[in-house]
tRNA threonylcarbamoyladenosine biosynthesis protein TsaB (Corynebacterium pelargi), 226 residues
Amino acid sequence: MLLLTIDSATPRLVLGLVRDAEVLAQRCLDDARRHNEALVPTVLEMLEATGFSFDDLQGVVVGCGPGPFTGLRVGMVSAMAFADALDIPVTGVSSHRAIASQLPGSKVLVVTDARRREVYYTELVDGAVQQGPEVCKPADLPAMQVDTLSVPEHLEQAVLEQVRAGKVVHEYPSARGLAAVAEFDPPQPPEPLYLRRPDAKEPTVRISPAIPQDATQPPAGEQSQA
């Protein structure tokens, strides 16, 4: 089964082609500002490089986070658009579990950047989620000891104030990890794990106090009749 894998839950956009657990192609793009414009051309480039076309794809696997609203939706909307246009299934998986599948040890902790000086975290034992995914400040992480910690390099020091780890790595989701989680889990529809409200807010309509309140209402003759 030829799968297209997509993950944009972290600052790194990860795209891949996987067939029967073999990674045929993988591309990683670290410029978050270009993810939206680069995604489709990169998928086209991978297909051409491997001798396949869109018609050969049999499924799409997409990382569902946790991740920031703006970044996460780039991959998820694209994955659903590909699946709908090609009439193939799309499966959503945890981006943290995809990272965890790459880590050595029985007990692992996956931490990713949530911005706003916060982190997302998931603790897993033998691949099963024990805590999370949750979002908090690094200082509010639960104290724990793990075999392996995956954390962005710029957050390592802050996280290690709360977590003891036998090994520390700086991993991102991979095509292999995304496909592996999808293979062993029941198919799941893509549901984004935002964990908090987006930064964007609805604008507040403010009426100047210089305008009489009655002036904001339509004249009686213009009111609609029931």
Remarks:
- The chain has two domains: 1-94+173-198, 103-170.
- DSSP finds five helices and ten strands in the chain.
